């Protein structure tokens, strides 16, 4: 069974759960209505790259990693930044979230220094 991942603000996720859903945040400070889809990752290593690039200044305890079963969702694998990412073109029902994980703190929030030749 395929799983995809989405980085969510913990307070937003908690609020959506309390209201019974659906979840409609696309990415940091942007909604599904703003972007047209919900940004996801295909693997945990891809998630780490997104954390480095877009969330490095966010405390890891303020984020959660949603594990999503994409069956019955409009998910399209699309190219971005030289990689392929799954994008959800629907509001995310709470029933599609199979697990909520903490954000990995060690690998996700270390500074990346490219090697020089």
TrEMBL record:
This is Uncharacterized protein (DUF952 family). Pfam families: DUF952. PANTHER family: BLR1139 PROTEIN (PTHR34129), DUF952 DOMAIN-CONTAINING PROTEIN (PTHR34129:SF1).
């Amino acid at each position: 069974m395929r799983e995809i991942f989405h980085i969510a603000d913990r307070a937003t996720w908690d609020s959506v759960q309390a209201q019974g859903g659906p979840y409609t945040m696309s990415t940091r400070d942007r909604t599904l209505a703003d972007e047209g889809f919900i940004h996801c990752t295909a693997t945990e290593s891809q998630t780490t790259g997104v954390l480095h690039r877009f969330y490095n200044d966010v405390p890891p305890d303020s984020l959660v990693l949603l594990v999503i079963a994409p069956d019955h969702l409009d998910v399209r694998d699309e190219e971005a930044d030289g990689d392929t990412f799954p994008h959800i073109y629907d509001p995310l029902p709470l029933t599609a979230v199979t697990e909520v994980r903490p954000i990995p703190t060690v690998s996700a929030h270390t500074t990346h220094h490219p090697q020089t030749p």
